[in-house]
Amino acid sequence: MKQQPDIDVVIRYLEEPGNEEHKRSLDEWLQLDAANLDIFLETKALWQGDVLPTAASYDVAHQWQLIDAQLTATTIPAVTATLPPVQPVQTVQAPAKGKVRALSTRTWWAAAAAAIVIAAAVIIYRQPLYIAQQTAQNTDSLLLPDGTRLYLNAHTSVKYPRNFQKNSRDVFVQQGEVFVDVKHMPEKPFSVHLKNVDIEVLGTSFDVKETKQGVKVFVQSGKVKAVYKNGKKSVVLTPGEEAEMLLAGTTISTRHHRNNNPIAWKTGQLTFVDAPLSEVADVLEDYYKVKIVVAEGLADKKLLATFHKESLSEVLDILSKTLQVKAVQKDSLVEIY
């Protein structure tokens, strides 16, 4: 849940960027909400007298790296506000009723700081155009403004508009894996955008995964169209079908699943119906994040089993007894022989 931004946290850091307590407070506040980064950048720009960039022009990932480096550095150079030089104060003789007091430098700076705080407070209440969501080791889910629900796997980053356009709904997957349960709205197509692939749907549920090789799309229900951004190739997928689209932008391979193993990370269930051991190994590798080596001659052994949130050691024990093989795990390596 978002918390009310504390402008004092930002101001204290800008006043004393070398103060370790202020750095820790700023770091904790930035972690509360991805939108707080925009607030900090805009406030800092105002403090330094820079021209404020538009929200959409920020390279958010790069800015996070810069801020993280600053907050973890041993020493951080001081940030000073760009303000006009203070002119020497001249004493002015007042009428007989009294003297006019000269405005001290301290008071002038306090007034300037107050003006900055007020202007920054106005910025804070300006809603950002996009909302960003990121997971670490955990999975998470979120409900979009249209009723569509996103399920995020670990190490996933997405962003979406605070308000969808009248005739379209667009979500951007920057990394990781997302299961999308789309709210059916035929008059308002839903699109998921990745680095080199766009996915177009009306109302369906599907999984999209960004890998080092490319993009994988698996459809649980409905129908989706996956299109290379270069426009050269596309594929239409129906329930149970999965497509892998390589980064090269020209190769699409498809396969049909008799189960929902591609979304086991979300359901917690793995199903194998006379599945060859080679296929079982691939699925277990992806689900448990390990490397599995199958000895020569065992790849075609068939497994009939269903697992629901069992540990890897439990799965390997059942697999060994069922197929009459040995499975030995050492750290993140599993050998089956």
From TrEMBL:
Tree of life domain: Bacteria
Record organism: Chitinophaga pinensis (strain ATCC 43595 / DSM 2588 / LMG 13176 / NBRC 15968 / NCIMB 11800 / UQM 2034)
An annotated Gene Ontology molecular function: sigma factor antagonist activity
Designated name of the protein: Anti-FecI sigma factor, FecR
Coiled coil region boundaries: none
Pfam families: FecR, FecR_C
InterPro entries attached to this UniProt entry: FecR, FecR_C, Ferrdict_sens_TM
FecR protein domain segment(s): 140-225
Record field: transmembrane: 107-125
UniProt keywords, alphabetically: Membrane, Transmembrane, Transmembrane helix
Domain Protein FecR C-terminal: 270-331
